[in-house]
Structures are given as structure tokens and as C-alpha cells.
UniProtKB/TrEMBL annotation:
Subcellular location: Cytoplasm
InterPro entries (alphabetical): METHMP_CycHdrlase
One Gene Ontology biological process: one-carbon metabolic process
Reaction equations catalysed: 5,10-methenyl-5,6,7,8-tetrahydromethanopterin + H2O = N(5)-formyl-5,6,7,8-tetrahydromethanopterin + H(+)
Origin: domain of life: Bacteria
CDD domains associated with the record: MCH (cd00545)
Keywords, sorted A to Z: Cytoplasm, Hydrolase, One-carbon metabolism
Origin organism lineage: Bacteria, Pseudomonadati, Pseudomonadota, Gammaproteobacteria, Chromatiales
Organism: Nitrosococcus halophilus (strain Nc4)
EC number: 3.5.4.27
UniProt-recorded name of the protein: Methenyltetrahydromethanopterin cyclohydrolase
Length: 329
């Protein structure tokens, strides 16, 4: 396992042209650019700027380290919500865990007492290597410029940008921070694009050998934005937990592939069956009290490339999804 990332490419090199294109087309994508006092570039995709679905789609591909593709589709599995986002990558572990996973916790409290907290995702994580995950993967990237995506509704303080730049070993002016509030269109889109990442992370939680996951595809409905954070957070989670579908291709025997399929869906969790916002509230808003087995796509198929046999488990929940999406009868 320690050598799984030995031959992986530089995700920062792959992402750089995507980030520059996003910045170059900021006006047409309804984004706002802002420079912090230290020179760090901020791309606002929903705080003071309206952003949109296309901006969120492109930001989602940046989160995937330039290794994934996200497209809009017309088959979601739900008659009442007919469109979806489709995600695939030929390098699922690096794409989903090494870049897209929001694993870098960033916090700062000013002398005046104001607080900022965000989870960072994107290629900057692989430069900093702050997470134990990178030791497990055996991967660290090198680059002179990087970016990080944060699901926040406020601009980060300069101290956070300085902290990120220092950890990544780059100049602050070579750092780009992309901000996607969960309550806006770009935010709900880039979260939906995480449907495959959620499955890969679940496989990691189940201790399935990551080197045996050779390819993957995911599809999920994109949640409508909520007017407040709790509504938006609930809807974006439910889009995947109740409506996400993933197909993994694995290099292992039939029994291992079947076991993975059986254990992976969100339907296996003790907390499954209620809207996510309701579950979150029942645990007094303590995220870590929620059963970690809940965070999975609703339906999973696993194909063994050795035998060609496929195994599926889980099910979609159209009734509950319509309720959490606020869909009128």
C-alpha cells in the first residue's frame, strides 16, 4: 500500500491550466476575483458573486486534481428530478482521496475574537501533506503554485492564506483560494461531483485495499440550493445518500467484490431513513456522532475485472429525496 502513489502524476501541474482558465473566464462564469493583502488570489463563487452551475462544475474538476470529468446528464434515476451530474476518473484514488477529499482542517481566531474555519480540498493538500492519509498513499506533490477549495460563506483572513502558503512551501501570491458557499449554485454542484469520492472514502473506511480499485463512475441528482446553511447542507448530503449511484471496477475476487458492494451503501447505516438535516439536529449538531457508515452513495455496483461478475446493493429513495429537496407535489 505504501507505494500506491509512487508513479502518480503531479495534480498541481494538471490543475494549473484549469485554475487559470477559471480566472480568465471569471466574468462570463459570474465569479468575482479578489486579492488579499499578501497577494493571494481569491475566487468568489457565491459570496458576493452569483456564480452558477457551470462554475461549480469546473470547480469540481479542479477539486479532482485535473484527473476527473464531470458532465451534466438527463438520467438521474428519479422521474421527478430528471437531470444529474456524471463523474468519472481513471485514477480514482489520487483523484478522489489525494485531491478532492476535504481533509485539511484550517482554523484561525483573530485578536478581536472573530473565528474562521474551513475544510480545504483540492491539489494544495498534496503539497502540504498535513494529513496522515498522504503517508498511507505514499504521495507528495511538488509545485510552485497551487489552489485550495473551501466551502465557506466568508472571505478567509490573510493569516489563513499565509498558513496555507507556508505549509505548501510556496509564495502567498502563488496561491489561489476558491470559495463555494453551500447555499449557492456553484456550491451544490461541486458537492454533487463528490459522489464518487464519497464511495472511495467509504471503501477506505471499510479498509478495502485501495490499490485494487482501478476505475470508477458516479451519478447523482444535483440538489437545489437552500436559503440557509442547514437546509443547503441537508440537501447536498441527501442528494448523494438518497440518490447517488456509483460503479466501481476492482481487481479482486468475487467474494471481496460482493462484500464491498454489500457494505458500502448508505442504506446499511443505522441512521439511514431520515433527512440528513434531521439526523444532524438529533445529534445536537455534533457531526462526529453520526454513524460514519451513513456517508455513502445510495446504490452501489462493484464489478470484478478478474471474473467480469458484478454485484449491486442499496436502493434509491425518491420519496424522501423529493421531501428534502422541497419538491412540490
Amino acid at each position: 500500500m505504501s507505494n500506491i502513489g509512487a508513479q502518480w502524476p503531479s495534480i498541481n501541474a494538471l490543475c494549473h491550466p484549469l485554475v487559470e482558465a477559471l480566472v480568465h473566464e471569471a466574468e462570463s462564469l459570474r465569479l468575482k476575483l479578489h486579492d488579499l493583502d499578501n497577494g493571494t488570489r481569491v475566487v468568489d463563487a457565491g459570496i458576493e458573486a452569483p456564480g452558477g452551475l457551470e462554475a461549480g462544475r469546473r470547480i469540481g474538476e479542479i477539486c479532482m486534481g485535473g484527473l476527473g470529468c464531470a458532465t451534466l446528464g438527463t438520467v438521474s434515476g428519479f422521474e421527478a428530478w430528471p437531470w444529474s451530474v456524471n463523474v468519472h476518473t481513471a485514477t480514482p484514488i489520487l483523484c478522489c482521496l489525494g485531491s478532492q477529499y476535504a481533509g485539511w482542517s484550517l482554523s484561525h481566531q483573530s485578536e478581536e475574537g472573530s473565528k474562521f474555519h474551513a475544510l480545504g480540498s483540492g491539489p494544495g493538500r498534496a503539497l502540504a501533506g498535513k494529513e496522515e492519509l498522504f503517508k498511507e498513499l505514499g504521495y507528495r506533490d511538488k509545485a510552485e503554485a497551487t489552489c485550495l477549495v473551501m466551502e465557506v460563506d466568508q472571505y478567509p483572513p490573510v493569516a489563513i492564506a499565509d498558513k496555507i502558503a507556508t505549509a505548501c512551501g510556496i509564495k502567498p501570491e502563488n496561491l489561489t483560494l476558491i470559495l463555494t458557499p453551500t447555499t449557492r449554485l456553484a456550491g451544490v454542484m461541486q458537492i454533487a461531483i463528490r459522489v464518487l469520492e464519497v464511495a472511495i472514502h467509504k471503501a477506505h473506511t471499510l479498509k478495502f485495499p485501495l490499490e485494487q480499485i482501478v476505475d470508477g463512475y458516479g451519478v447523482t441528482p444535483v440538489a437545489p440550493p437552500g436559503g440557509d446553511f442547514m437546509t443547503a447542507m441537508g440537501r447536498t448530503n441527501d442528494a448523494i445518500l438518497l440518490g447517488g449511484q456509483v460503479h466501481l471496477f476492482v481487481d479482486c475476487g468475487d467474494s471481496e467484490a460482493q462484500d464491498l458492494a454489500k457494505q458500502m451503501p448508505s442504506t446499511m447505516s443505522r441512521d439511514y431513513g431520515r433527512p440528513f438535516a434531521e439526523i444532524f439536529k438529533s445529534y445536537r449538531y455534533d457531526f462526529f456522532q453520526i454513524d460514519p457508515m451513513l456517508f455513502s452513495p445510495a446504490k452501489v455496483m462493484v464489478t470484478s475485472i478478474k471474473s467480469g461478475k458484478s454485484f449491486q446493493a442499496g436502493s434509491l429513495n425518491p420519496g424522501l429525496l423529493a421531501k428534502t429537496f422541497g419538491l412540490s407535489p
